Amino acid sequence: KTISDRLKLYSKNAYKKTKVTEEVTRTDTVCMRENDFYVDTVRQFRDRRYEYKKLTKVWAKRIGKAETPQEKKEAEDSALVYDSLQVAHKCILNSFYGYVM
User: Fold this and answer.
1) 68 DSSP 8-state letter
2) Do residues 81 and 60 touch, judged by C-beta distance below 8 A?
3) Counting Cβ atoms within 10 Å, is residue 77 exposed (0-12), middle (13-18) or buried (19+)?
4) Do 42 and 36 meet the contact criterion of CB atoms below 8 Å apart?
5) Within 13 Å of residue 19, how many CA atoms lie on the same side as its CB?
6) How far is CA 89 from the centre of its chain?
7) What's the rounded Cα separation, in Å, for the pair 85 and 47?
8) 87 with 78: CB under 8 angstroms?
9) In the prediction, which pLDDT does 42 show?
10) What's the mean pLDDT when you consider all of the chain?
11) 29, 76 in Cβ contact below 8 A?
12) Over the stretch 5-52, which tens digit does the pLDDT of each residue have?
C-alpha cells in the first residue's frame, strides 16, 4: 500500500473520519450598500437604454417622412441600429437585476 492509503486507513480508525471539514459562519452583504459603483453602473445603462429608445422612435418617424430612397434606407438602418442597442442594454440590465435578486 502507498503512504497516502495507509494514512487514510489510520485516520479512519483513529479519528473515525478521513476528511476534515471546517464550517465558517459568514455574513452576506448587499453590494449596493457597500459599493456605489454597481448602482451607478445600472443607472448609466438604464439612462443609455432610454436614449436609444428615444432615438429609435425619432428615426422610425423619419422613415415615413423620407422623400428619397436613400434617406429612407438611412433612416431604416439607423432605427435598426438604435433598436438593437436598446435591446442589448435591456438584456444587460436584466442580468444586473438577476444578480441582485
Assistant:
1) S
2) no
3) exposed
4) no
5) 2
6) 10
7) 12
8) no
9) 85
10) 83
11) no
12) 888 888 778 877 666 677 777 665 555 556 677 778 888 989 999 999
Contact 52, 85 (CB under 8 A): yes
Residue with cell 438604435: 82
Taking alpha carbons only, the member of 101, 91, 10 closest to residue 46 is 91
- The pTM for the full model equals 0.61
Q: What is the DSSP string of 4-48?
A: HHHHHHHHHHHHS-S------------HHHH-HHHHHHHHHHHHH
Q: At what angle do helices 36-65 and 69-100 cross, to 10 degrees?
A: 160
Of residues 93 and 24, more confidently modeled:
93
Instruction: Extract the C-alpha cell encoding 16.
Output: 473515525
Quick one: 48 exposed, middle or buried, by C-beta within 10 A (0-12, 13-18, 19+)?
Answer: middle
